[in-house]
Amino acid sequence: MVRLKLPNGVTTSAQTRYLASVIKKYGKDGCADVTTRQNWQIRGVVLSDVPDLMKGLAAVGLTSLQSGMDNVRNPVGNPLAGIDPDEIVDTRPYTNLLSQFITGNFQGNLDFTNLPRKWNVCVVGTHDLYEHPHINDLAYMPATKNGRFGFNILVGGFFSPKRCEEAIPLDAWVAGDDVVPLCKAVLEAYRDLGSRGNRQKTRMMWLIDELGVEGFRSEVKKRMPYGELERASSEELVKEEWERRDYFGVHPQKQEGLSYVGLHIPVGRLQADEMDELARIADEYGTGELRITVEQNIIVPNVDNAKLEALLEEPLLKNRFSPEPPILMKGLVACTGNQFCGQAIIETKARAMKVTEEVQRLVSVTRPVRMHWTGCPNTCGQVQVADIGFMGCMARDENGKPCEGVDVYVGGRIGSDSHLGEIYKKAVPAKDVTAVVVEILISQFGAVLREREDSEEA
After folding, report:
1. 211 domain residue, yes or no
2. pLDDT per residue as tens digits for the range 432-446
3. Which residues are catalytic?
4. How does 76-96 read in b/e, with b if 16+ C-beta sit within 10 Å?
5. Which of 116, 244, 354, 393 would you call most buried, defined as having the most Cβ atoms within 10 angstroms of its Cβ?
6. Residue 429 belongs to a domain with what CATH number?
7. Contact (CB, 8 A) for 65 and 108
8. Domain containing 372: what range?
9. In a domain, 319, yes or no
10. In this structure, what are the phi and psi dihedrals at residue 314, rounded to the nearest 5 degrees?
11. Cα atoms found within 13 Å of the Cα of residue 57, Cβ hemisphere only
């Protein structure tokens, strides 16, 4: 697997075509995933091809440098940056600067190649909080102070098998020009002081617990230029009373005469021919650009309104990547699962699709329900932020024999009232998951059995 650096999830048709050409030669193992960090991963690559692959990545402006292990992962931003009529700030300049800093302008930055553990960062640019700031180690939240634009700072959000925590305020504000110095100071504090013992207790929040928020803040402050760090601003720009928008389908951009079109990528999995088609569509209908979202979907920006009708008739949109997905498919997310990941306990992507299709046949729902699947407790599928989450585990069937199963989580929320979900039922055998989902949807999400709905209509 090759994981890339793709700040803000912005990619091009040329990059997409190149990645398609790479995976095409690996047969059934060759595929690509859109990830929950707004990124591409390509699969099936053999080690002997890596030197040529690295040259090819560089030729299209991509790199895999410092993208895995105990490094800073892909900087996340608003997938609608620069085109959203309601955006607070264009996050692309900030996420690009962060990526350039972290990787030493893509030449390598030895200062941050050996952190105590992996580390996530995002820059928020929308009231919708598409960036999921509450689950990042460092999140920049737009806020003004004395007429200056900048960001309040959240720190410490993370998931792990041992513990999951939401990010907390650092009581700090930085001007827009100080996004990189603040990131540097936080990373240096974590690098220098973070525990390197038990890897289940080495994420940054453990250090914040050890020092206390004010103690951690003082360590960040002393590493800032001139040893200064302003207190948080009360002038936050993110509106708390804001209904999160659906980016699927056609939406007008801030640029007159242009629209963006959100496409559903089922559980984020693509084949080479589908990537080639997406690249063609980006060129033919837009400006050769694609946007990736943390929910594993893709947005085609900059579509001339005169071309919208033809775009919506494209076979790829009609048959595979719908701009109007079924209501329960909209929020479906799944990690790689044991098809390709050695840590996953269960298969996730095909199972997530199968269960959702079965549930759709059994019940009718009137609002989207976000369902996330993850193959193991590392929770790359982020089950704790889902309305309903499924974490792979071993269970026992009715005869007491070991079988694949899931721990079921319920109640995760995203947005301004973010909240991590809690265990609903442990070790549910895989064959029983559909029934449990139906039970939850009826009892907590207002779903109605289709047979009952049909009889009422009759």
Report:
1. no
2. 999 999 999 999 999
3. 3, 117-118, 375, 380-381
4. bbbbbbbbbeebbbbbbbbbe
5. 116
6. 3.30.413.10
7. yes
8. 330-449
9. no
10. -60, 135
11. 20
